[in-house]
Amino acid sequence: MLTSEAMWKLQYIYFGLFFSFITNSIFAQSFEETDTFDNCETFENGLPSNWQTEDGGAIEITNERYKQGQYSLKWNWQTNSKIIVSDKQLSEVSYEKGAGMHVWIYSDVNINDEIQFCFYDATDNKRCEFTYKINFTGWRGLWVRFWEDIAISSRTPLVKMEIISPTQTSNSSIYFDIVEFKSSISYKRSPSYQYAHPYQSEMDEEVKDEWASWIYEQRYPNPTLPLPNDVPNKTQQTFSDINARFENWLLGTNKYASNEQMLKRLAARNSYINSGVNRFNELDIYKAPNGQIFGPALFTNKSSHGPKFGRDIGEKLCLQLALDYRINHNQSSKEKLLLLLDYMHDQGWAKGSAMETTDHQKLRTAAWAYSVYLLKDDLKNIEWKNGASILDREMDTLHWLTYFNIIFAPLDDRLEVSVDDFRSATIMRLMYILMMENDDPAKVQYMNHYTQWLNGNLQPFEGWTGGIKADGMGYHHRGPYMNAYSNNGVHVMSQVLYFLRHTEFDANNDAKQTVKNYLLNYSNITGFYDVPKGISGRISGLDKAARMVTAFAYMAQCMQNGVIDEELASITMRYWQPQHQPINEIINSASLNISYFNTPGEIEAILDIVEIGQTKAENPQGLWMKPYAAMAVFRGNDWYVSIKGTSAYVWDFESGSNENTYGRYDGYGQMETINNTSPHPSMVYSGHDYNNGWDWCRVPGTTSVNLGLDGLKTSLQRVFTPNTFVGGVQQQNKAGVWAMEYQDVHYSTSLSFKKSIFFFQPDMMVCLGSNISAMQPQKLESTLLQNVISSSNYNHAINGEEVNELDYSYLPINGAATIIDDQGKGFYIPDDSNLNITYNNNDSETMRRQESNGDVLTAWFKHDNKNNYEYAIFMKTTQSQLNSFINNPTYEIIQHNNSAHIVKHTEQKQTGYALFEPNQITNDDFINSSSLPAMLMVTDEATDTKIISLCNPDFNRRKLNDIGDIKKFDDLFGPFQSQTLELKINGAWSADEFPTNVRIISKNATSTVIEVETHDAKTYDFILKMDSVNSTFPNADEQHRVWPNPTSNKLNFSMAEKAILYSIEGRQLIYATNTSSFDIGNLNDGIYILECVNAGKVFRTKILKHTAN
Asked: Is 234 within the bounds of a domain?
């Protein structure tokens, strides 16, 4: 008869085999498993003959513990015993530069000792070694490289590995699983409390994410702010209040229980909870009577194996179980979550654990962290071991995974904190502090550090570092990234400020103003609900701006105690349109991804704004230039335009695995527009439908080489051009110029061009291109528009004739052409000789490389025999207005060549300048030249008054090849270097007041030189007034007379050997010798300069020509 112990052992084996079957079938189908274990030693086929013991101890195959499959190698070690491994794979890969070892190790007892790994060559010489501490229980994953980490001394192949036991005496065992020798071990390997390989980066370089937990613990081991002696009752109440806010936000307060939107959110939450509760059973985690836990092997996000701690467990399941327990009081879900927490810990989810790598693990941790917070009162009453509770254990892990000690860093330490940190670890660090006891003085100390950290990081940063920029743009991956990254990061920061608002731990006003400025900028530059593709990196999905609605609501309640910020609240109401699909989708969501937004408290925060009767803000109208994104945005009440460039400081595009594969031309002048109103304003409904037949080679606004889909595929991304002339100037947010110069030095097309766009109210853009060339001129094109046509948008008219049949191809009329859609967006093309327009059914692929098809109308210029272009766009016009415009254009091209693009709006008396080349005299009457490339907008406010807006778009930072060159803090935080620009204008001008960096350095009758100290690609505005009409110049003589002045016809003066009349801009109009009068009756009214020469003396006088009414 079997003893109870024997019976248990049989059951133990049965459960192991049964579980293995379940794992390999049901579980593998439901959770991601990204790689096989074919090249790993997993001990599934018995004891390998090449694993031997020496000097005592024994090894065996066991199913007592296993990481993968159902077996591992158990080492019943004795002091100074060894395992000897002779492995062919080791000898084949070890000489490679990046070669190393993967291994998972299990210890059933925490020992203050270590094992030693030694590696030998064929002559039995030890070539390298390292030690690994056994100060843990559970599984630990290790990645180690032979060369970089353990200093192999030559390229001689390794043939043997020796594992030496701890020196202490113990009855414990050590287990090994998934042992693999590889020719390339990821550089993303992380240090741990068991083994820390040498740090590869310099102190003045950014801390890589895989190193962050370890490095910040080493650099900042302790708080530096004062530790109070005790915690006053008022402060304890503050902690209770913040906790209540946080928990109410998570669970809701029933304040708006009958509200339609709240009911939808609660229904979505119930579905979310149920899906998780049902999904838990697929894991088949169980705990044996002896306390051992069995379940599928878990790996970190960067591992080649799956399922993942984060994506499959910590990102979803934990929170679903916690919510079920807290909301529905389901004890079963509580028990499941406790089992899951124990299991994750046993798998290596623990303080000090590398789990192979912790790289970006914080991004897949939120659901676990929120679940711990929601069960904190239960967990602190459940003992784990040695007097510590499960809450203590989980908080220790949270502290490690969020590299908590970064908040202890002194303010003058330059530490890059990315928006990834904003959207993930930041709120989890707050949870850690909130879970501390209210009467613990360390809680006050930590909270003060946290607030200090918020204040230090919520400020504009220069250079390529992540975070928020002076122009309100958000940076990630060293570039503008307003979709998924910076927007979600700022959204979570607004949550944090909402929880801390108006308490002693609130952020300062500057920090809150930085967030507000970001949100106001976000409202201006995003298209209703859409984020322009050009500032979305690799992320697909346009309507992500809708997700930010709650950030406005949070911050509206944060800015001032007891007062709602009306500006932010009104924008909240503008976004909050539940009848529109993007908002309705948010209302009906309850899940968590990297960040948690979809709580009942979120809806309550919005409804708090609705309840006060806040009016809805008007749609933004105006023109905005964003130098940190090489971007312009032009919009009216019911239309929107964005333009995106690339430069020496702003990378071109980002792609990922099947993400934005064909986005190479995102930064080549891409123009995205919205001009529809139904069912809601949208790029998709306005023709920019990237999922239905979109032609990635013909992106509106771009000049490019048509390479076909396959030709667009490239491993290059996020590269810079050598060109610094990209950006724009704006004047009073109404008119301006955006321009870019491009030269391909990466993609082997030899593409180069200069392009500009001139913006005039109310809705006109004049687009110029010049110096367009490429290696294959027959494939060189500039695209005007591309619209994917569907039943929900519109048709077009070409030269007044509607185009609604497929297989259309335009025949040039060798004159001016027009294109208009039924939403009012119109194009005027003065010369259609190289214009192509087609309306065809097009096969293509989506951003994610899925097949797509759609009916597409496209217009483009071919540049095989013409290297420039000109056209105008009107966002709201009619065919009749376009026809009138053909006969009487309201703009004039002053210059359109290599050195400058200059356009004048004849009715609005505004002139825009894109001066590509320095020190080149222009064709313009007013601007003579600029010592640096510059952009200007000049408005004739009056006959003698001009409003000047000037920008030097060059940040004047170090020029780099791609973002991989940005490593040192001097580049990350590196400020611009100022540049002095000298602007020479025709005529004598003065100003009542200049900005502090602007001054006149020289002036005479025919010219004025203005010096501008430019920096950070900013726009500088000033007003110039013509010097007084009746004044004479310093070299005038009382005996020289001029009369009448003003005059309407004849101008008399003292006899002159030579007399010249100039325009105020310095252009010679009349020249005569030995004369005493000019007839100027045929000249326009205005100001002129008379210059007379007698006996070597020069006399100059300003003349006012004025015709009496």
From this structure: no
CATH of the domain at 70: 2.60.120.430
Angle at 267 between CA 263 and CA 269, to 5 degrees: 115
Give the C-alpha separation, 458 to 471, whole Å. 14
Is 811 a residue whose pLDDT tops 80?
yes
Domain end position, chosen among 165, 185, 205: 185
3-state secondary structure 890-951: CEEEEEECCCEEEEEECCCCEEEEEECCCCCCCCCCCEEEECCCEEEEEEEEECCEEEEEEE
- Indicate the residue among 167, 185, 203 that finishes a domain: 185
CATH number for the domain harbouring residue 1075: 2.60.40
* Spatial distance between the Cα atoms of 117 and 134, rounded to a whole number of angstroms: 13
Which domain range does residue 683 map to? 622-945
Give 873-887 pLDDT, tens digit per residue.
999 999 999 999 999
Q: Are the CB atoms for 760 and 636 separated by under 8 Å?
A: no
**Does residue 51 surpass a pLDDT of 70?**
yes
Q: 859 falls in which pLDDT band (50, 70, 90)?
A: very high
Phi, psi of 866 (to 5 degrees): -150, 120
Half-sphere exposure of 233 (CA within 13 A, CB side): 0
Could you give the number of structural domains in the chain? 3
Burial of 1084 (0-12, 13-18, 19+ CB in 10 A): exposed
What is the maximal distance between C-alpha atoms in the chain? 139
Nearest to 666 by CA among 906, 482, 934, 868: 482
What CATH number is associated with residue 825? Answer: 2.70.98.10
Nearby residues of 385 by Cβ (< 8 Å), 6 or more positions away: none
Helix axis angle, 549-556 to 486-500, nearest 10°: 30
Number of Cβ within a 10 Å radius of residue 12 = 17
Q: Are 689 and 997 in contact (CB under 8 A)?
A: no
Tell me, what DSSP letter sits at residue 364?
G
CA distance 856 to 227: 66
Q: Does some domain include residue 454?
A: no
CB contact at 8 A, 642 and 525: yes
- Between helix 317-328 and helix 366-374 the angle, nearest 10°, is 20
DSSP 8-state assignment for residue 532: P
- Side chain identity at residue 903, one-letter code: V
Distance from C-alpha of 695 to C-alpha of 698, rounded to nearest angstrom: 6
Amino acid letter, residue 664: R
User: Is residue 374 within 8 Å of residue 160, measured between CB atoms?
Assistant: no
Q: Is residue 229 part of a domain?
A: no
Q: Provide the pLDDT for residue 25.
A: 37
* Host H or E run for residue 760: strand 752-760
Category of 537 on φ-ψ map: left (φ > 0), alpha (ψ -120 to 50) or beta: left
Listing DSSP states for 118-176 in one string gives: EEE-TT--EEEEEEEE---SEEEEEEEETTTTT---SSPPP-EEEEE--SS--S--EEE
pLDDT band at 2 (very low <50, low <70, confident <90, very high): very low
Tokens of 439: 């009467």
Q: Of how many residues is the chain composed?
A: 1109
Considering the chain, what is the average pLDDT of its residues? 92
Question: Contact 729/736 with Cβ under 8 angstroms?
Answer: yes
pLDDT of residue 18: 39
Query: Radius of gyration (Cα) for the chain, nearest Å?
Result: 35
